[in-house]
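Reopening this one. Same input as before:
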Amino acid sequence: MPALPDNLTLVPHGILLLLTAAGLLALRRWPWLYALSIWPGTVAHELLHYLAGLLFGARPISLSVMPRRKPEGGWLLGSVSFSRLRWWNSVPVGMAPLALMPAGGWVFAESCTWPLMSSAAFGMKLVAAQCLLAGWPSPRDWAHAIVGLLALAALALLAALGMMHAGWLSY
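Same output, byte for byte:
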């Protein structure tokens, strides 16, 4: 990761990153414009789900990155379907987009090495904002992950109780 500059340089770059992300979010009033503006992040988000599904045996069967209106209202920007999403693989598959967060941080740090008002710095901040916004899991992603986390917590509790009962673990 590139070395970050001093605070006097970092603060205006950070403000520009926040303004860029806020600008992207402000486009939500116009669904098609918003979907188009964050499409690269949507593609990255869904591809990470797909790759995690391949790695953890969830067997992805479809990938869509075309925005569409949901019957109950609102928009679905992208989706991945799996034929074998289970409690044990739902956590890494659901949380896979979080990998975009450090990527966004790295791109932001790189952008700070350019002059603040340069097109290169703004372009990198736009990529960083895409990564940061797309890196946050959707409510459905969280729902899948929470089911897996609850199952893992229950198994850990049962294992600890069994070890205490067997005398392998004292309390």
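So the earlier flakiness isn't reproducible anymore. For the record, Strands lie at 60-64, 68-69, 75-76, 79-82.
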